Amino acid sequence: MKLGITGLPGSGKSTVFEALTQNISDAGHKGESRIGTLRVPDARIDVLSDMYKPKKTIYAQVEYFLPDIPGRHENKADRNILNLIRDCDALIHVVRNFGGYGFEAPTPYKDFLTLDQELVLADLVVVEKRLERMELDKKRGKSVEQEELSLLNECLKKLENEIPLRKFSELAFAHLLRGYAFLSAKPMLVLFNNEDDDDHMPEPKDADFTENSMVIRGKLEQELAQMTDEEAEDFLTEFNITASATDRVIKRSYELLGLISFFTVGEDEVRAWTIKKETRALDAAEVIHSDIKKGFIRAEVISYDDLMDAGTYQEARKKGTVRLEGKTYEVQDGDIINFRFNV
Questions:
Q1: Domain ranges of the chain
Q2: CA–CA dist 137, 125 (Å, integer)
Q3: What average pLDDT values come out for the chain (343 residues) when binned by 10 residues?
Q4: Where are the beta strands (DSSP E) in 147-288?
Q5: Which pairs with CB-CB distance under 8 Å and at least 24 residues apart come from 170-178?
Q6: pLDDT score recorded for residue 82
Q7: How many angstroms separate the CA atoms of 111 and 10, rounded?
Q8: What is the largest CA-CA distance in the chain?
Q9: Which residues have CB under 8 Å from 104's CB, separation 6+?
Q10: pLDDT at 303
Q11: In the UniProt record, does the keyword Endoplasmic reticulum occur (predicted)?
Q12: N or C: which terminus of the chain has fewer CB atoms within 10 Å of its end residue's CB?
C-alpha cells in the first residue's frame, strides 16, 4: 500500500511526512522525493507471535511517498509533482490550518478546493488527449473499444463540471480505466494541519464537504517523533494525545482503501497479509504465492477471536471453531488461514 502526500506549497507536507515516518531530513536533502516504509501496528500480531514463538514475525507494511522536484515554482501546484503520485494507491492531501509569522490567515477549505481542482484538470487533459487519439483511430478505420470510449466520455462530463472522479465508484474503480491512474479517482484522506494547541476540525464554510478528513498537529507530532518514550510522555499528557499520528493515519488509510488483514502462523513465521475486503480465499492465496492459488484445495480457517477464546489451536479444533472453506469464501479481517494446496 503506497500513499502519496500532496498539498499546496506551505501546507506543511514535509513536516507531516516526518511526523508520520520519523524520517527527518537535514537541510541538504530538501527538495528531494522521499519515501518512508512503516510497519502497520497490530496488537493481534504481537499476541500471535507470543503464542507461536516463531523465528520471524512480519507485520504488514505501508509506504508514504513525498514527491518533490528541485527548482520547481512554489506559487502553485506543480503538474510534474502531481504526475509523480499517479502510481500511488491513495492520496493524503495536507491542508494548512495554521497561522504564524509570514503566513496569511489560513483558508483551509479554499486551499483544499484549489489543489483538488488541479487534480481534476490534470485528469481532464489525459481524457481529452485519449479521446482525440481514439477519434483519430476511428477515422483511420481502426477498431475502438466501445466500453472504454463510453467510460471516458462519462469521465469527460464529470471533469468538465469540476467533479473529481472519486465521487463516482463506477468510474473510479472501472477496470478498463485502471491504466490511466486518474488522480482525482484515487481515494483521498484530507489532513488539516493545525496549530499545536488546536485539535479541532476547521469550521466548514460549505455544508457539502464530505471528504474523509482528520486533524493532525504536524509540527507538534514532528517534534514528538524525535523524542524518546520518556521525553514524549509529558507532551502526550499536556496535549491530550492518546495515539500517535502514525497509528491514527495508518488506521484511516486502511479504512480509506477498504483493506483488512489475515494471518498465517507457525513456528517459522507469524505474518500479516493485506487484502481488500470481500477478497475470496482463492485470491487471498495468490497474495502469498501464485502456486498456492494454482493448486488450491481448501482453506483451513479460524478467526483470531475464536483462537483467543479457545486458548490453543488444538482446543479450537475440539470446540469446532476451526473450519474448512472453499475457493469462494470471503476472507474476514483477523482470519488465521492455513491453505491446503497441491502443485
A1: 278-341
A2: 19
A3: 93 93 67 86 95 95 85 54 90 93 88 95 96 93 92 97 96 94 96 91 77 92 82 76 83 91 96 96 96 97 97 95 97 97 91
A4: 188-194, 212-216, 259-264, 269-276
A5: 176/145, 176/147, 176/148, 176/151, 177/148, 177/151, 177/152
A6: 85
A7: 11
A8: 72
A9: none
A10: 97
A11: no
A12: C
Rounded Cα distance, 235 and 240, in Å: 8
- Cell numbers of 290, please? 501464485
Asked if 340 and 299 touch (Cβ cutoff 8 Å), the reply is yes
CA distance 229 to 236: 10
Residue written as grid cell 480465499: 281
Superfamily of domain 278-341: Beta-grasp domain (3.10.20.30)
Grid coordinates in use for 162? 469540476
Q: Would you state the pLDDT for residue 74?
A: 47
* φ, ψ at 41 (rounded to 5°): -65, 135
Query: Are the C-beta atoms of 111 and 70 separated by less than 8 Å?
Result: no
* CB proximity list for 215: less than 8 A, separation 6 or greater: 97, 191, 192, 194, 198, 199, 200, 201
DSSP string, 92-147: EEEEEE---TT-PPP-HHHHHHHHHHHHHHHHHHHHHHHHHHHHHHHHTT----HH
Provide the 8-state DSSP code for 308: H
Query: In this structure, how many other beta carbons lie within 10 angstroms of the beta carbon of residue 152?
Result: 21
> What's the half-sphere exposure (Cβ side, CA atoms, 13 Å) at 5?
29
